[in-house]
């Protein structure tokens, strides 16, 4: 148990990153709009993406360095490619998470109306999150996410149980024919289910940081057990959110709003009307804790990944600490400006989220193939390489990722 406490951290950070837009927004919308039709998509995405996230944790434990080092050793081109991919996606991904977090924060606290200052909640969110990471970095992040994780699990489980008891039970057996709208929804849903594959790099970085912070070098089994714990909790919660959407919203005449504050009010409002007003603060707190934990880990992940990559490319750049803070400011300001440019658009939330998720899905096959190549290379001891089952699952995952990406590209024409 003492060793478990020393290892615990990276898997929880991963779960906090995953349980956000993909769960609260997309899984809920999938259930609300299509019942249980898209349950298969959530299950397949979680199962077939799993190896590529696990490989990053496996590499970090074996080599005691982030998987970015492996990209660099494999061919310098791949590290430059990763940086290019990161710069293309980071503002949209951070913006998508930030705009949803803003909506639930404003719904819970109502600071815009209370202060009379336009977008006050949005600016406060970015300031507080950036300040926490600027001052505390990994130690503060690790402790904060564990606390928010407890709030998340407790409140979500309560909401789920109440939905099962008081939801519209007839929807459990309702499996409508997949429509054109459902097919169009699948790619964004899978893009971030459980999260973007390129974020696997972050887990390798967090694993190394946790070893440094705790001073304890876990065995490979301990590292993988801790990661699996976080990963499969996030997978189970995705199904729970789809179920709540299906039982509480599907079949009603309600339409999902496009603005962040309206969307958050819609989600909480539907649940409280169905379950009872007494659940308002429970559900609001759960939603905000989910999104805040996701937002803070996303900002930290991008800042840490870029600073690590830059330190590999050249020793003449700023110190890792200064590079981290500069990247943190760049990501925060760029994401904030992106959100502000879309806030006046009635479909702004949907536009940012769909753009971010589709970008993530299209670059996923490249990162997945890289991770598989790295972990099965001669640089990894044979006893530390994945077994036959994981390799078979990896091949299926690569076919799935390349196949759906090709399907999307073809559909554009």
Short overview:
The chain is mainly alpha-helical. The chain has helices spanning 2-7, 10-18, 21-34, 39-63, 68-74, 76-109, 111-115, 120-166, 180-191, 200-214, 220-248, 260-275, 280-313, 320-342, 348-375, 388-411.
Keywords:
413 residues, mainly alpha, Amino acid/polyamine transporter I, 16 helices, 0% strand, globular
Give an overview of the whole structure:
By secondary structure, the chain is an all-alpha fold. The protein has one domain: Amino acid/polyamine transporter I (Up-down Bundle). Helices cover 79% and strands 0% of the residues. The chain has helices at residues 2-7, 10-18, 21-34, 39-63, 68-74, 76-109, 111-115, 120-166, 180-191, 200-214, 220-248, 260-275, 280-313, 320-342, 348-375, 388-411. Helix 8 packs across helix 11 and helix 8 packs across helix 14 (320-342). It is globular and about 55 Å long. The N and C termini lie far apart (55 Å).
